Amino acid sequence: MAEFVDLRLEEMLPELEEMQRVELFTEQEIKAVVKKRRDFEYKLQKHTKAKEDYLKYIQYEINLLMLVRLRRNRTGFQFKKPEIDHAIGNRINKMFMYATSRFPSDLKIWLSHIEFCKRMRWTSSITRIFVRLLAVKSNEPSLWIMAAKWEFEENGSAANGRGLLLRALRFHPESIQLYTEAFRLELLEADRLRKRRQVLGLSCEPDLPDNETDTDNILDGRVAVLFYNDAKKAVKSAADLLPFLAVAKEFDFTAELQATIFRDMQVEHSEDEITWDTIARHALEKDPNDKEMKLKDRIELCCSTYEEAIERIDTPKMWQLYVDTLFVLGENEIIRPKIRQRIHHVCYRALTNRKLSDQQLIDWTNMLENDQFSGYQLKTVLTEGVKQFPKNATLWTKALKAELEQKEEEPLFQIDTGAADEPEPAADEEATAVSIELPAVFWEAIKALGSTSDSIAVWETAIEHFEALSNQNSKALQTVENLYQKAVNVEPPIGKHFKPLYLNWFATRKGREEAQKLYQSQASLPPLVLDFHYTIIDLELKEAHPNVEFIRKVYEKAAMQFGQKNKEIWLRFIRFELERGDPTRVGNLHHRAKMTLDRTLADDFLVQYTLLQLQA
């Protein structure tokens, strides 16, 4: 082992001597470099080699190379680069090769090697690395694409990139991703050649001499068409053709090719929802050859295409694509007034046919809340919505809020019945009778959602409504308290969430002493909640003269219930005794905490306890 290490170190002598001679490094620094390299070399000579040893050695050499460059910039000495910089770079390159040979399955090492060679501008090395990488990981199309993109876009070798993609398609003849990338790169090459001819003042039409037919095919995009025609064998749905269409739209000479893709969609996938969605959205795009067609006409053409589609393909997906397009159009402030009513109409039709998704329904109700002249009642829509999506908490919350706030449309006029002289019921009494009673939709929502975290929003909506109402109606306070009491008794996570909130509300409404009584009656009852203890402590500490003995008892109870799994309780207890209580109790608390806490938490507790003592 030692002889191999010594041999490697002897090979490094010329660069080390040069580094010292040109005064980039001092003698002591050279000795430190030799010692560090010797340690790394011995690690690499072990029988069982570790990946971390290679990576640490490589990182050390990269840092050393960066330091050399920094010192060159500082001193202005730019000579002897082959003897120093290139020697270090070659060593890093070799180390990467050793690492990838020893651990070929680790993709990060391969990619780091490629990135290093890019920074060193070793283009030939990158090509060789990709060849080795693809020999090991030929089953990953993304790596073939990465290699081809590099050859096309950075190395400037269209032939190498095309060859890589052709090899990749032999391994993955069904990969749409590979076909799309080949299609894109061929169009990119055609675009590059066309721009070059424009700069030279030459025509871009395919009228080249017979001996330049290959360039003619590339310039005209025929090679890209060949890849596209080959890809049609692997296409299973209209969605597979969308990437080709998106790529073709990036270039201004592919109008005929785009028309071909649209035609193939309509012929081969006429019953696919994506086909109709693509055609309808394409109708919205402005055609530079048709200047007479206005935005209104394009929107009308788009909508008529969707209407024809839902007649032929009456599926939820088709309706949802239609609604999504309308929502996208509605985001434009200029277009929104023109299609607002159409959005409402289509959404209502989709809802009644049970074709609308729950998220689209939520988005539509948001629109209805801000549109008083839509012609559709929000409560009616939400009632139908919760029937179709009984597990959607957002819809239940909106339905409850609409019911509680009585957001019903007022009649446009009222017929005179001749009973104008009859006494009307007192408004305050009628409001009181309605406001303090929980609507049926609340209990329906709780039943549908169960004791899950989703139903928390429903409880909160009801509580917030009646709490706001309590300023005008004192009887609503009892409704709020009843809601809190029911919520606390529900299984977790509902009970856990509302138990500390109930205590805080109770203290605000009924005072300190009543809150303490509530705490003492509920602290040991399930569900046990740590924040319940913290809430009463925080409330007590806000008082001008807090009851120290009561707070201490609260901490004791919290430590008894949660002290084994939570170190924060003990730390807060100790901090309280140091700042507000009796510091002589701290030692006993520290001992109890060590004995109670799990072993996994004890060490961390001791560290934080020490810091707490230093801050005191």
UniProtKB/TrEMBL annotation:
The principal localisation class reads nucleus
Q: Where in the cell is it found?
A: Nucleus, Nucleolus
Give the UniProt record's GO annotations in the biological process aspect: maturation of SSU-rRNA from tricistronic rRNA transcript (SSU-rRNA, 5.8S rRNA, LSU-rRNA)
Q: Domain U3 small nucleolar RNA-associated protein 6 N-terminal, which positions?
A: 9-90
Cellular component (GO) terms are: Pwp2p-containing subcomplex of 90S preribosome; small-subunit processome
Query: Known Pfam families for this protein?
Result: U3_assoc_6, UTP6_C
- The record places domain U3 small nucleolar RNA-associated protein 6 homolog C-terminal at 301-597
Q: Which UniProt keywords apply?
A: Nucleus, Repeat, rRNA processing
Under Gene Ontology molecular function, one entry of this record is:
snoRNA binding
Top-level taxon of the source organism? Eukaryota
Under the heading PANTHER family, the entry gives: HEPATOCELLULAR CARCINOMA-ASSOCIATED ANTIGEN 66, U3 SMALL NUCLEOLAR RNA-ASSOCIATED PROTEIN 6 HOMOLOG
Q: What family does the database annotate? A: Belongs to the UTP6 family.
Q: What is this protein called?
A: U3 small nucleolar RNA-associated protein 6
